[in-house]
């Protein structure tokens, strides 16, 4: 870190009194800093921290201290877009080194739907995106430090940051052991199976083709789960996103394999992921599982419904959408899915918030027709989805962004964890099989809690 050169830059700038914040962007090359040290060092910021790592490692970001947030009780693409622009406009950005390949981002998401939430989701607004005080881009080794412009002392700020970085490098990493489980139970298991049976009778191949029904599993602990323990456990499943999102007294956690979309310039990438078979961890049996999945009519149908819907929803925003008509297999640690990569070139003036609104929820987590399915889920499903299966991710100043469909997830509060898992129901689905499938889909979170029998 070339502190003298950085100070010279700071000596040469004048603070812009029209702005609310100053963001300093500086490299932290070679520093021994990771997510666990950050969460340990910034323990007092509990409830105001996140870790977001994308599955292709495009992003690995920790944010600490929510300085300002966009919060809305209703989703409105145009208002959100304006608020995002206004927030970025309030920031004076200063690069302390040229050519750093990283940019400031906001992190957050929207709830799955507008269902009145039960108390459990009160910490998360309908739509919420945060500007953190400390944003660590761990992939590119860059820090974005943001402070209120009236509070910044350009003579002392660098020294303060350096001291903090040194303390982070020396942070203690002593996590508590795994949370001791008091009680573990599926919520409404028989009612859920009955709902699936009823739903199969309602579905057909034209007017209501598919709906995804989710269920919950509740685990209570003898004492609260240590964030450092959870972070360590979150590191152990490749090929998935990692979301650890604290807000108030809650933490929302996901190891989702499913991208909603990412945008770079005018290029959007998304995927259809639907159709599932358990991974058995025996090479012969797993080959059979994969070839079953590729050829099974019900799974193929479930998958095609998702792909068609995504392609259809992209059309107003793109004259060029490309995908392979034959799905492949997405391999996760516990499960296989049918997978189709979809690419689009976006038309001019497409806004990321319009795309979010247009694409979410895909029938991988909602159903088809989308509105019928959404209403059905709100009406019939037990409990509230909140951030489960909802878009969570990051947005830069322009449209560049990456969003996850936050499945394989749980909500942690005080001494309890609520796990969520759902599956696509079509005509001909069997409630027993779907129940088993959701059981498999709890595994990533059970594994994070070390609550499975593995
Ligand atoms: C809804 C979930 O998963 C979704 C449903 C799938 C299916 O029904 O085959 C497969 C992958 C996901 O798109 C979940 O994991 O909770």
TrEMBL record:
It is an enzyme of class 5 (isomerase). InterPro entries: ADC_synthase, Chorismate_C, IsoChor_synthase. The keyword Chloroplast does not apply. It holds the Pfam family Chorismate_bind. SUPFAM superfamilies: ADC synthase. Residues 190-441 form the Chorismate-utilising enzyme C-terminal domain. It catalyses: chorismate = isochorismate. Its EC number is 5.4.4.2. It comes from the Bacteria. GO terms for biological process: salicylic acid biosynthetic process. GO terms for molecular function: isochorismate synthase activity. Keywords: Isomerase. The keyword Nucleotide-binding does not apply. Belongs to the isochorismate synthase family. PANTHER family: ISOCHORISMATE SYNTHASE ENTC, ISOCHORISMATE SYNTHASE MENF. This is isochorismate synthase.
């Amino acid at each position: 870190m070339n502190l003298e050169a950085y100070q010279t830059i700071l000596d040469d700038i004048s603070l812009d009194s029209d702005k609310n914040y100053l963001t300093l962007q500086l490299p932290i090359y070679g520093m021994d800093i990771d997510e666990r040290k950050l969460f340990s060092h910034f323990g007092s910021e509990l409830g105001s921290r996140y870790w977001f790592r994308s599955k292709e490692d495009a992003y690995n970001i920790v944010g600490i201290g929510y300085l300002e947030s966009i919060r809305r009780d209703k989703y409105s693409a145009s208002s959100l877009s304006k608020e995002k622009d206004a927030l970025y406009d309030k920031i004076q950005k200063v690069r302390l080194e040229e050519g750093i390949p990283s940019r400031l981002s906001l992190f957050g998401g929207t709830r799955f739907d507008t269902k009145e939430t039960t108390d459990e989701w009160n910490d998360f607004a309908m739509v919420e995106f945060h500007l953190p005080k400390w944003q660590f881009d761990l992939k590119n080794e860059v820090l974005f430090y943001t402070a209120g412009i009236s509070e910044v002392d350009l003579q002392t700020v660098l020294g303060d940051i350096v001291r903090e970085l040194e303390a982070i490098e020396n942070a203690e990493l002593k996590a508590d052991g795994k949370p001791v489980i008091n009680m573990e139970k599926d919520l409404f298991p028989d009612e859920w199976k009955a709902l699936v049976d009823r739903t199969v009778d309602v579905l057909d191949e034209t007017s209501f083709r598919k709906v995804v029904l989710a269920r919950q599993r509740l685990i209570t602990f003898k004492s609260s789960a240590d964030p450092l323990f959870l972070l360590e456990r979150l590191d152990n499943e490749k090929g998935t996103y990692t979301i650890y999102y604290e807000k108030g007294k809650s933490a929302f956690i996901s190891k989702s394999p499913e991208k909603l979309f990412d945008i770079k310039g005018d290029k959007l990438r998304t995927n259809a992921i639907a159709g599932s078979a358990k991974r058995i961890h025996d090479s012969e049996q797993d080959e059979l599982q994969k070839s079953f999945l590729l050829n099974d009519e019900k799974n193929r149908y479930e998958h095609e419904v998702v792909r068609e819907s995504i392609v259809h929803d992209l059309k107003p925003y793109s004259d060029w959408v490309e995908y392979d008509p034959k799905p492949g297999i997405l391999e996760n640690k516990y499960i296989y899915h049918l997978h189709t990569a979809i690419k689009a070139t976006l038309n001019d003036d497409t806004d990321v918030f319009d795309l979010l609104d247009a694409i979410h929820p895909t029938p991988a987590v909602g159903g088809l027709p989308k509105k019928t399915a959404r209403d059905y889920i709100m009406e019939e499903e037990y409990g509230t989805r909140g951030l489960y299966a909802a878009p969570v991710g990051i947005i830069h100043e322009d449209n560049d962004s990456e969003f996850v469909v936050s499945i394989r997830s749980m909500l942690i509060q005080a001494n309890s964890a609520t796990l969520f898992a759902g599956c696509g129901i079509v005509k001909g689905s069997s409630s027993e099989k779907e129940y088993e499938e959701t059981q498999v889909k709890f595994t990533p979170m059970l594994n994070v809690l070390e609550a499975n029998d593995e």
